[in-house]
């Protein structure tokens, strides 16, 4: 009997453990995650004032997603989209970070502790991370993209086309502390105004 053949007493498939197989890997210059688990919280690897430059660097950097040769047919038609949603495994997240239930957002101690599921922290029970990337080109089983914040070697779990109409456009609200972080990270434009 395989793991997928097990059922609960009610006849439902057993899902107490899942087996994920990567469909590919990330290849890029990112060697360390921006946020890392440390003791009972996460820590920002860069100073907050350097984050804008780091985000710009990731947005401009070309990363490759190399899909397993045996699965290359899964990519047929993907080049018709400008953006993709990439789900990947944060393989540099230590086991201790999977036990965290609360963190200071972005490791910033001046912000109150928040539950992991109300943050975008890489410290998660299952370190599945997601990001939207710009597709630059497809060459066979290789996707060249911008904006992938994954660490080099990260296993890719899934890729989906980004279709903005699938996501709410109106009446979207976010926490005040998250808006504060977004405002701080937004490009302020040229010095001196407009």
What does this structure look like?
- The protein is mainly beta and 194 residues long.
- The protein has one domain: Beta Barrel (Elongation Factor Tu (Ef-tu), domain 3).
- 10% of the residues lie in helices and 27% in strands.
- It contains two helices and ten strands; from the N terminus they run βββαβββββββα.
- A six-stranded antiparallel beta barrel has the order 1-4-9-8-5-10. Strands 2-3 form a two-stranded antiparallel ribbon. A two-stranded antiparallel sheet has the order 6-7.
- The longest helix is centred in the first third of the chain and has 10 residues.
- The protein is globular and about 50 Å long.
- The mean pLDDT is 85.
Average residue pLDDT: 85
Query: Structural class per helix/strand content?
Result: mainly beta
Tell me the Rg in angstroms: 19 Å
Our measurement of the CA-to-CA distance between the termini, rounded to an integer number of angstroms, reads: 66 Å
What is the gist of this entry?
The protein is mostly beta strands and about 190 residues long. It is built from two helices and ten strands; from the N terminus they run βββαβββββββα.
Any key phrases for this structure?
Elongation Factor Tu (Ef-tu), domain 3, six-stranded antiparallel β-barrel, two-stranded antiparallel ribbon, 2 helices
